[in-house]
């Protein structure tokens, strides 16, 4: 009997522990920490101007060095380590000629030195020319302030500053809570003046994007960067009261598909039809399928045109190593089931080039070719009647011949002949890859009384916000 009671007790303890762990792992509020790369790779330097009030050094979120002074510079340097101590206080009291260095979990007296066999690389934390302390630049060691804010290169951020040594430079990372991070993301991704439920829907998408892309920049020592490669992040200067409110009022909420965290992509405007993820990235998701989107028919980018000369396109192809000589013809060979160009071929005097998915858009520029939801415009259409009915034939001819406008008649075409004088005109709809939530559409839905959960479920079939 006692044996059964022991087994039951062990089972209950394991169940309780699993519940606690599950709760901790699904706590997507400000306790969930993210590493954002501020300066890395070619953008990294060996020193930075900073402003960190009453700077403190932490290891695994535990304070290891305290200071009542403000730091205004951090730089990569070399020091000679002398005697070691078990506490910060002992190291500080031991000598007035040296400073404290926290290196490999130990406190040392340190003095500046040049690079050599007896020196070690460290980060020097300074106030003007005075060294406050030094530390081993490795992961999980951060600099924090008394007000949970810091500046680096005159830009202010919430959270803490992490510095990782990369040979001769320092990768600068913002170690920050998820909520604080989203404060700096939302106003860079969507207009703060839009409807609150549209902002809340964006908060859900951005929170999901963050969680599902953790470790994307693992090789650099952080999770996400500050650009469109991840999500645009502007720090404290970007924050807005209305977007902060949207983040606060959706705190901890995540979109799930059948119990799994969903990848919730978003774009500016669909132009009336969203796209399936497999047609853009080859990644098939049941909730990332194209939907008819009448809410995105009247936004700023619902309809657009772009004109490019033959010579300019030939130059772009040549500079990218994809020259076809003199361009003769361009055709859309394949479209997705949602109407976007999937394969485009350019025919020239010295060869042909085919571009699939988003590659044609990237070739010319993603802000000029706003989406792949387009046709080429035929500026010299033949006079083909729309029916065999004699009355309609005469009506069509009359309408065409009596055109008052001097502008060319633009008819959609999937293949055009290219002359030396006429520009190549592209007539398109929407802005962005078209997958997931249309931001303009979300705002239009909110204006019609839809709440943020309804917006999410409209663009992501089967996704529930919890």
Give a verbal description of the structure.
The structure is a single chain. Helices cover 26% and strands 32% of the residues. It is of the alpha+beta class and 466 residues long. The chain folds into three domains: 40-60 and 74-176, no CATH class; 206-299 and 434-465, no CATH class; 303-379 and 420-429, no CATH class. It has a seven-stranded mixed sheet with strand order 4-3-10-13-14-1-15. Helix 4 packs across helix 5. It is globular, with a radius of gyration of 29 Å. Mean pLDDT is 89; it is low at 14-25, 381-398 and 400-411. InterPro entries: Bact_Sporulation_Assoc, SpoIID/LytB, SpoIID/LytB_N. Keywords: Signal. Pfam families: SpoIID. This is SpoIID/LytB domain protein.
Number of domains: 3
- Helix content bin: 25-40%
Largest sheet: 7 strands, mixed
Q: Beta-sheet strand percentage?
A: 25-35%
Strand order of the main beta sheet, please? 4-3-10-13-14-1-15
Provide the residue-averaged pLDDT: 89
Structural class, judged by helices and strands? alpha+beta
Give the terminus-to-terminus CA distance. Answer: 43 Å
Shape: globular
Q: How many E-type strands? A: 28
Calculate Rg over CA atoms.
29 Å
SS element count, helices: 11
Unreliable stretches: 14-25, 381-398, 400-411
């Amino acid at each position: 009997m006692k044996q059964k009671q022991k087994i039951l007790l062990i089972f209950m303890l394991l169940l309780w522990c699993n519940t606690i762990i599950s709760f901790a792992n699904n706590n997507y509020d400000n306790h969930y920490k993210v590493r954002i790369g501020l300066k890395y790779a070619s953008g990294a330097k060996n020193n930075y101007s900073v402003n960190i009030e009453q700077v403190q050094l932490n290891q695994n979120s535990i304070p290891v060095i305290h200071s009542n002074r403000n730091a205004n510079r951090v730089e990569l340097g070399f020091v000679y380590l002398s005697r070691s101590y078990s506490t910060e206080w002992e190291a500080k009291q031991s000598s007035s000629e040296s400073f404290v260095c926290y290196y490999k979990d130990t406190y040392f007296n340190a003095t500046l030195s040049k690079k050599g066999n007896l020196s070690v690389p460290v980060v020097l934390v300074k106030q003007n020319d005075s060294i406050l302390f030094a530390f081993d630049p490795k992961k999980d060691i951060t600099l924090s302030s008394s007000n949970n804010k810091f500046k680096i290169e005159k830009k202010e951020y919430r959270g803490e500053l992490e510095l990782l040594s990369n040979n001769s430079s320092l990768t600068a990372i913002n170690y920050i809570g998820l909520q604080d991070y989203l404060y700096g993301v939302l106003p860079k991704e969507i207009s703060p003046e839009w409807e609150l439920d549209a902002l809340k829907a964006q908060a859900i998408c951005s929170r999901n994007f963050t969680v599902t892309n953790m470790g994307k920049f693992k090789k650099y020592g952080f999770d996400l960067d500050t650009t469109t490669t991840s999500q645009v992040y502007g720090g404290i200067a970007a924050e807005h009261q209305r977007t902060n409110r949207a983040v606060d009022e959706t705190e901890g909420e995540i979109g799930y598909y059948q119990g799994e965290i969903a990848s919730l992509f978003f774009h500016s405007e669909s132009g009336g039809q969203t796209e399936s993820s497999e047609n853009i990235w080859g990644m098939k998701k049941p909730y990332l399928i194209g939907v008819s989107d009448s809410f995105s028919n009247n936004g700023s980018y619902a309809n657009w045109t772009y004109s490019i000369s033959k010579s300019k396109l030939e130059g772009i192809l040549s500079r990218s190593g994809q020259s076809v000589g003199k361009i003769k013809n361009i055709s859309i060979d394949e479209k997705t089931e949602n109407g976007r160009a999937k394969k485009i071929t350019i025919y020239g005097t010295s060869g042909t080039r085919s571009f699939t998915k988003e590659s044609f858009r990237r070739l010319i520029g993603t802000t000029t070719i706003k989406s792949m939801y387009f046709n080429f415009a035929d500026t010299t259409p033949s006079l083909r009647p729309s029916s065999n009915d004699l009355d309609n034939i005469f009506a069509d001819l009359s309408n065409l011949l009596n055109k008052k406008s001097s502008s060319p008649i633009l008819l959609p075409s999937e293949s055009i002949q290219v002359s030396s004088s006429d520009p190549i005109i592209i007539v398109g709809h929407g802005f962005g890859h078209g997958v997931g939530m249309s931001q303009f559409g979300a705002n239009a839905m909110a204006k019609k009384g839809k709440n943020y959960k309804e917006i999410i479920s409209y663009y992501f079939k089967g996704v529930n916000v919890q």
